[in-house]
UniProtKB/TrEMBL annotation:
Organism lineage string: Bacteria, Bacillati, Actinomycetota, Actinomycetes, Micromonosporales
Entries under PROSITE patterns matching the protein: GATASE_TYPE_1, PDXT_SNO_1, PDXT_SNO_2
Matching CDD domains: GATase1_PB
Name of this chain's protein: Pyridoxal 5'-phosphate synthase subunit PdxT
Enzyme Commission (EC) number: 4.3.3.6, 3.5.1.2
GO cellular component: cytosol; glutaminase complex
Gene3D superfamilies linked: 3.40.50.880
Secretion signal, residue range per the UniProt entry: none
Function description: Catalyzes the hydrolysis of glutamine to glutamate and ammonia as part of the biosynthesis of pyridoxal 5'-phosphate. The resulting ammonia molecule is channeled to the active site of PdxS.
A Gene Ontology molecular function term of the record: glutaminase activity
Recorded family membership: Belongs to the glutaminase PdxT/SNO family.
InterPro entries (alphabetical): Class_I_gatase-like, PdxT/SNO, PdxT/SNO_CS
Keyword set, alphabetical order: Glutamine amidotransferase, Hydrolase, Lyase, Pyridoxal phosphate
Length: 207
């Protein structure tokens, strides 16, 4: 069912195009999603990196917040990178008061957690479900995960440096989030893992 599967990439704000490119390398149809009717036509969704406060505001303006919350809570496989991770969090620290996440993952994330002095850096992250060695992970004003609920599996932590041990990749059933940007490094393993998740979900719902 992979061949016919359609994966949307939220296209309100952020690096939508890079995710579309990454998905195009895999055996799926990938399209941008801006409106509720476009959301209805996809089997799974990627929420890109960018600026989560801007994304939240645009989602409210485009009438996307409620439809997204419903689909995500209803089992649509969804992957969020960086700002996308923030939007999938139940609780945001250092967010804006008017920021409304889509939720879904029982976790608390801290925005811009790695500190102001380091805007972006590359670190090494092992992801427990993904073979092939550690990721060379790009962090850009990235969040980290401060707390997870009992249903959340921690998949990856920063391995070295001052932020060593910080949680930067998680999964809760059909939902996946990373604080870094695999769409920027040409390493397709996270996208492939997500496509596999989406395919499994499709098989379950289609019997
Ligand atoms: N690269 C990113 O997606 C950065 C996330 C951004 N700092 C935010 O809070 O939304």
């Amino acid at each position: 069912m992979t061949a016919g599967m359609i994966i949307g990439v939220l296209a309100l704000q952020g690096d939508t195009r890079e995710h579309l490119h990454a998905l195009a390398e895999l055996d799926v149809i990938a399209r941008p999603v801006r409106r509720p009717d476009e959301l209805d036509s996809v089997d799974a969704l990627v929420i890109p990196g960018g600026e989560s406060t801007a994304m939240s505001k645009l989602a409210l303006e485009f009438g996307m917040t409620e439809p997204l919350r419903k689909r995500i809570a209803g089992g649509m496989p969804t992957y969020g990178s960086c700002a996308g991770m923030i939007m999938l969090a139940g609780t945001i620290l250092d967010g804006r008061a008017d920021q409304v996440p889509f939720g879904g993952i029982d976790m608390t994330v801290r925005r811009n957690a790695f500190g102001r002095q380091v805007d972006s850096f590359e670190g090494s992250v092992d992801i427990s479900d993904i073979d092939g060695g550690p990721f060379s992970a790009v962090f850009i004003r990235a969040p980290w995960v401060e707390e997870v609920g009992p249903d959340v599996r921690v998949l990856g932590r920063v391995t070295a440096g001052p932020a060593a041990g910080r949680i930067v990749a998680v999964r809760q059933q059909h939902l996946l989030a990373t604080a870094f940007h695999p769409e920027l490094t040409g390493d397709l393993r996270v996208h492939r893992y997500f496509v596999e998740m989406a395919r499994e979900a499709g098989q379950t719902t289609e019997g």
